[in-house]
Every structure is written in C-alpha cells, then in structure tokens.
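cron nightly-structures :: item 1 of 1
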Amino acid sequence: MRYLVVDLDRFDAVKDSFLRALTNEQLSSPYERAIKLTQYILTSQYWGNDELIWAVKSLGTIPCLSQSLNLLGIKANDVQTFIPKLLSKLHLETLVVGSTTKERALDMSNIVQEILGAKPLDLDSIDGSRSLLIPAGDT
C-alpha cells in the first residue's frame, strides 16, 4: 500500500460496486437496518450509508458533520494523494493469536510498521474507539 498506484479503470469499477452495495444495503431487512442504526447512534466516529453515498458521488458540504467537507465526488487522484497522508497518521494495533512468542509477535508487528512506514503517534493523537453510553431513563 505504501507504493500503491491507483488504476483509474479499476478504481471506477470498485467505486461503482461500493455504491451499489451501499444502495442495496438500504433495501436490507428491518432487523439489519436497526442494527446498523444502533451502531451509528452508539459509535462516536461512524458514517451512515447516506453520508457515504454522498461523499462518494456528491458536490457540496455535509452540514450534519462536525467538519465541513467539500467534494466533487471521490476520484482516483484523490485516493492517490490521500495515501501518504493516511500512512503518516497510521496507528497499528496488532493481535497475534496462536503458538508464538512475544518476541516473534513484536517482530511481525515491526515488519508491518517498516513496510508501511508507520511512525509512532503521541498518545494524545490516538483517538480510541469509543461507544456512547446511554443514560438510564425513567420507568
């Protein structure tokens, strides 16, 4: 991924497939949609289907987000220029399962960090995965 070159034709095919999957997901069963909506409500950083569809193909700003995004739809060049930015702020958490030693697990993690060119972030820069707690209601 560090030296990835985005192929224009392949990008368009993946983008179209992603948009179809998002659109089809809106036609899923009420149970599946309720689970997605619950995840959307309880997770601090989560984009819903409508926001993802907008970001992939729209023009303008999303007023409901804390930050205003100006996009003319996502293009292959946008992804190509975003890769170095992504890798410069990459945070890796590694879980190694199986018959291995701590040293071997750390070696594997270091190999991935070296290949991707990841640098350690300050603890203040790491925005951990958080869920919102809903206060108890009156009965």
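cron nightly-structures :: done
Residues 59-71 have pLDDT under 50 and may be disordered.
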